């Protein structure tokens, strides 16, 4: 098979959450253990950092990988979903796994895994762990797919666990209250392994503390002694941080929500530095400043062009839009134009209530079966007195927004990772 045929095979023969939603979710680790045994327990051949949470996992994972790369390590990075190319999920020092490796993995092992009927994510995780072992990485930064306790990444024994935050998302799998969701995320806390909690409230904190006590693990709450003292925007679109321990740091990622992520990351780096894993303290600042360059991170308040300014962001739930809506409103511009769509396991009304009332909207739907129909989004927009028109595809919506815009306008593209995926695929062509 060609690479494209291999990817289509994976999408069509394994349940893919990004395409079909809940029917792709497989609770339990039985397949994961069988795959792990088949490949010789590859995750035992490298040290790892495990990152869970509702929002911010991707930014934290990429930034920590960038810091470790800046410190001279060979670093594997496993994240999901991808935005343009499947291979974005599996990287070593920023380089995507080769097309040939993916082809060979499927060709050589499909006779074993086909009878297991693994999910797409189970198979991709096995591929990543095998690749990292063969590449002899020093460290792998592993992002949880969904939840934590029963996520197939949870067979690793990391040197550090991180839980960024908890909000109501994927409630059909993880529970309908914050403590229930926290319990699932806390499942990544391992015996005598330090854990950093980025954000917690009274209800979730007790869940994390109980699990850490059960596992005899050091637990550090990043909010207790904040590493970030103050922050501000940089002219290039990034963020500048005054920090408690590391002086002034410039971050390449420009979303205001990155302040929370940065606080979590810096608290985690203190653990790594104190344990002689980060050897050069300057690597922390370098990692923050060059995260996209080192890891090819996309879709986090990413500026595509100026005049008109075009930004995309993968924020896709109520917790994320709490920050995005504020940042959109604060953009200096003549007219705000927003290309917007969502997928059907998110709280559409909760997010749309936060959308700026003075913007011009280009309602659309991403190319996934899970997309909210554009007519439903437009209908709710009308109820909320939001001014907009409907477009069948992200491409049509963006092209119209760009055509309508003057040089002084601001265009935002988002609402879902899948909207951003369609958008980035368009502009890369």
Describe the structure.
With 429 residues, the protein is of the alpha/beta class. It has two domains: 3-295, 3-Layer(aba) Sandwich (UDP-N-acetylmuramoyl-L-alanine:D-glutamate ligase), CATH 3.40.1190.10; 302-428, Protein-Tyrosine Phosphatase, Chain A, CATH 3.90.190.20. It is 40% helix and 17% strand. It contains 17 helices and 17 strands. The strands form three sheets. It has an eight-stranded mixed β-sheet, with helices on both faces. Strands 12-13-17-14-15-16 form a six-stranded mixed β-sheet, sandwiched between helices. Strands 9-10-11 form a three-stranded antiparallel β-sheet. Helix 1 (3-13) packs parallel to helix 5 (99-113). It is globular. Mean pLDDT is 93; it is low at 17-24.
């Amino acid at each position: 098979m060609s690479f494209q045929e291999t990817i289509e095979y994976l999408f069509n023969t394994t349940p893919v959450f990004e395409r079909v939603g809940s029917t792709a979710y497989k609770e339990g680790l039985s397949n994961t253990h069988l795959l792990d045994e088949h490949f010789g327990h590859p995750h035992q051949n490298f040290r790892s950092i495990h990152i869970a949470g509702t929002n911010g996992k991707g930014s934290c994972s990429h930034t920590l990988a960038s810091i470790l790369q800046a410190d001279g390590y060979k670093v594997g990075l496993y994240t999901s979903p991808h935005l343009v190319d499947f291979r974005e999920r599996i990287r070593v020092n920023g380089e995507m796994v080769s097309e040939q490796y993916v082809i060979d993995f499927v060709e050589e092992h499909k006779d074993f895994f086909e009878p297991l009927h693994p999910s797409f994510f189970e198979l991709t995780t096995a591929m990543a762990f095998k690749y990292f072992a063969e590449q002899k990485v020093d460290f792998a930064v592993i992002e949880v797919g969904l939840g934590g306790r029963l996520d197939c990444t949870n067979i690793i024994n990391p040197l550090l666990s991180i839980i960024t935050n908890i909000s109501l998302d994927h409630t059909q799998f993880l529970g309908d209250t914050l403590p229930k969701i926290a319990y699932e995320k806390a499942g990544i806390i391992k015996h005598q392994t330090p854990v950093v909690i980025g954000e917690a409230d009274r209800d979730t904190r007790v869940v994390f503390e109980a699990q850490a006590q059960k596992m005899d693990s050091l637990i550090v709450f990043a909010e207790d002694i904040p590493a970030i003292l103050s922050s501000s925007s940089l002219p290039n679109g990034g963020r500048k941080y005054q920090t408690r321990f590391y002086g002034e740091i410039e971050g390449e990622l420009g979303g205001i929500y990155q302040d929370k992520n940065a606080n979590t990351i810096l608290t985690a780096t203190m653990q790594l530095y104190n344990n002689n894993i980060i050897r050069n303290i300057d690597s922390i600042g370098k990692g923050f400043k060059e995260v996209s360059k080192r890891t090819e991170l996309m879709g986090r308040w990413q500026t595509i062009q100026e005049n008109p300014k075009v930004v995309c962001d993968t924020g896709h739930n109520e917790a994320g839009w709490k920050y995005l809506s504020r940042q959109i409103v604060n953009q200096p511009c003549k007219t705000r134009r927003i290309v917007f769509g969502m997928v059907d396991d998110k709280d559409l009304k909760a997010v749309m209530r936060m959308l700026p009332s003075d913007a011009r909207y280009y309602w659309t739907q991403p190319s996934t079966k899970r997309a909210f129909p554009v007519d439903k989004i437009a209908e709710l927009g009308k109820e909320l007195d939001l001014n907009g028109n409907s477009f069948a595809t992200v491409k049509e919506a963006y092209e119209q927004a760009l055509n309508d815009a003057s040089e002084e306008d601001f265009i935002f593209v988002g609402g879902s990772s899948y909207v951003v995926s369609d958008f980035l695929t368009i502009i890369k062509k």
